[in-house]
Amino acid sequence: MPQIGSFKLFLPTKYSSHSLFRLNSFPPFSLFSKPKTKTLSKPFSPLTTTTTVFSYSPGKQQRNTPPLRIRDNSTLREVKKRELGKEKEPMKEANEAAGFNKRRAEGRDKNDKPKTLQLKNRKLNPVNTCCYVQVLGTGLDTQDTSPSVLLFFDRQRFIFNAGEGLQRFCTEHKIKLSKIDHIFLSRVCSETAGGLPGLLLTLAGMGDEGMSVNVCGPSDLQYLVDAMRSFIPKAAVVHTRSFGPSLISDGASISESETFAEPIVLIDDEVVKISAILLRPSCCSSSNSQDSDTENVAVLKPGDISVIYVCELPEINGKFDPEKAKALGLKPGPKLRDLQLGKSVMSDFQDITVHPSDVMGPTIPGPIVLLVDCPTLSHLRDLISLQSLNSYYDGVKIVSCVIHLSPSSVTMTAEYDTWMRRFDGAQHIMAGHQKKNMEIPILKSSARMAARLNYLCPNFFPSRGFWDHQHLINGNPDIIASSVVSVPNPSESVAAENLLKFHLRPYSHFGLDKSSIPELLTSAKAIDELLLEIPEIVDAVSEVSHLWNKIGDAKELILSPEQNIIMMEEPWMDENASVLDKNLGKQGSDAALKEIPRSVNTDDLNHDSSLPSCLENMTREEMEIVLLGTGSSQPSKYRNVTSIFINLFSKGGLLLDCGEGTLGQLKRRFGVTGADDAVKGLKFIWISHIHADHHTGLARILALRCQLLKGTVHEPIIVVGPRQLKRFLDAYQRLEDLNMQFLDCGHTTDAKWEGFESQSFLRSAKEEVNKDDGVKEIAQNLETSLFVKGSRMESYWKRPGNPGETTGVFEIQQKLKKVLGEAGLGALISVPVVHCPQSFGVVLEAASRLNNEGKTIPGWKLVYSGDTRPCQELKDACQGATVLIHEATFEDTMVDEAIARNHSTTMEAIEVGEGAYRIILTHFSQRYPKIPVFDETHMHKTCIGFDMMSVNLADLPVLPKVLPHLKLLFKNEMIVEESDDTVDSET
After folding, report:
1. What pTM was computed for the model?
2. Which residues, including other chains, have CB under 8 Å from residue 535's CB and lie 6 or more apart?
3. What is the pLDDT of residues 651-690, one digit of tens each?
4. What is the span of the domain harbouring residue 968?
5. Where is the tRNase Z endonuclease domain positioned along the sequence (predicted)?
6. How many domains does the chain have?
7. Is residue 546 included in any domain, yes or no?
8. Are 590 and 535 within 8 A, CB to CB?
9. Which CATH number belongs to the domain containing residue 201 in this structure?
10. Backbone φ and ψ of 368, nearest 5°
């Protein structure tokens, strides 16, 4: 009989060493130390086991956190010396002289030997004292991912689906991911598995040896593993544990009766039996076949298969009767325990065998939980007709709870309602995208922080982090349906809420438990808490509002209602205006917003003689920088991982890096419909390097863009990134349509653009050869002069991978040039930086413009560093920059750590930006949960970045002046929270 391949993950012991994901095969269904092996009644043909070689790069993930510590100026090295009582080996002199870790920059590390770790054995207890299922609200407030579900036992944890934001949610609510044994995917796509790469890397960094986990899913899981190997390096053998039909890249024809007939048993041990029932869209059926033998054939493609998971607990033994045991000659002792565990024993005083049925009451069937993911109406037709569910209908097997991951567009139909009613007496939990699930932010800490920042400075922080009821109804059609139409589902149906539990054991607690559901937090409550904690913040709010008053005459700058709507951008901001009015007094929020100048004029800024000419008469519809994530390594309570949205307003937008959770952050900033518009309007996406915290949100963005533009005429979006990223995207496109074209960052450097311009001229000249002999002569002269041996251009064309040797690169460069023009940009130049192989920063330059008097105004220039040590190339690129966005992972006293991991300190970042007008610092270590340590005396043109911070070019003059007030907002944040503190985790 074929065996199920087990996805077994062995994780690294040290961040500086390359370790190995090794996923070994297990005998069928025996995943634990003492498995209860069970054989299927007949062989299951569509079982697949695939072996793939891919590499793993330990990176930027959190280790076991130390106790609470008070911030000081000690380096991490000094802290370790105190804790361990021994000196750490000094860094090599060569590295100190170079100022960066050369081995790391070259993609090498000190310990290249793979580790051989064992999967931890859990000592299972068949009589569990506690078992429940719990909704983990990933994506519920922003509707960007599928929710996750936790199946909890005393010594085992199972998670179903791992969408983007799962780590951040678990950190927020102190759910320990280190206890997870298995992750099951109901579908293999960005919606259900977007958080998996980051989660695996986080588990890799826990403890000294890392944590191991099993990942199970449909056969498409192998495509995801193939995609992840591009950024999980150093050779490792992987045996994925997948089930279902084995598909080829172009789809496969599989007999329905053979493939979808029986449940697939995945786990069957002392505490739980977990089975999978495959669900496919009925539209895949082929009814036009001429051959009767292939009449019932389904043609499937990756991502079409969905899974229903059935979790069955063992039956509960009847109540033990001690009087019956005594009458049968048994004395108190271990034999009574054996009888309760279902074992027969010999009587102590009689020559008889005592069976459990002799002393126990009747057994009670074990609880059964179903997790149903029916993503489309096409899948619904197959769901209704599934024969494999017949034994769970109408009380044949009593189902205790059904958790519905299906969207409202499916669950609100009469057909789905009829199907639900077949589970007699079951508790239904509707965990799909519904309105109620959006009312409470799942990231309360982040929402509270956003509300405080918005109260202090609504100009830079327009998002309050809370949803408006009218805004919810104006969003997703599914939400409209669930909020307007009466729910036809059974009376036993409840809407899922974050951390809602359904207890299965002990029986005395059986049923729903809402005690863990977070309490409602409103923006008004968050501000009231702030005023009690820092009463002087009221004066700071007034001072911040005056910063904008100084720029121009407020009476002349009050906008019309139409202009104000465009400027504010946030559709739900008016809801809490009364709260701001109450706390601001005469300086109400509306007044403060209206006093934002329409443009910046040099006559009004005598205090800032260094104002760049590009800001002259700058309108608010030119460009805005939106920081969607400002943390490094992994998502935390207060900072998401790196992502920057450049809002070009009517000309669209673009993304610089795209870490996990980027889509959710866009929705928190612009609302559901606003984020959809932003995704549809993306001109291109630029990725700095291959580390997971900079690109694992990319697939979700690209897949959503395809869905939103489906049925419309549109061009593939260009993704500019390191060449390793192309392998990930090419492999991932087998799962979902991404509709993108890739361009290596190396083809967008200054030298490569120079070669492109020369080639463009040559091509244009050659096209005129038959029209004009003079042009032909010019073309020939160019070829003989530009590409003579030893010339700069000859060396350029001889480089490996140049556009002349790479099919289609020139055409994509041409298209990018056109897209830049449409976005009002004059240039995009990638700059090699010092971090890991193929790491880049980027320079964006806007095209020049004419003012009202016909004068030519130079375009703005934005520089983004990516992750890097200070380097001359980036410093040169910053000359004349309007704004530099630079990573500042470490505080100034941690230079050694910055060198070891090829990152920058705060002061180093500021020094790189000497030639820039303004500097925004970002990518802070998660050891600084809310605000990093910095020396304010050096911040005269610099500001600290926060998630959701939105900096309009017109507001750059006042940017550094806000920093002291932001520091006041966090004056009590001198203790690093245990859940957020990370040590030795950045790469």
Report:
1. 0.80
2. none
3. 999 999 999 999 999 999 998 889 999 999 999 999 999 9
4. 614-764+807-975
5. 141-195
6. 3
7. no
8. no
9. 3.60.15.10
10. -130, 135
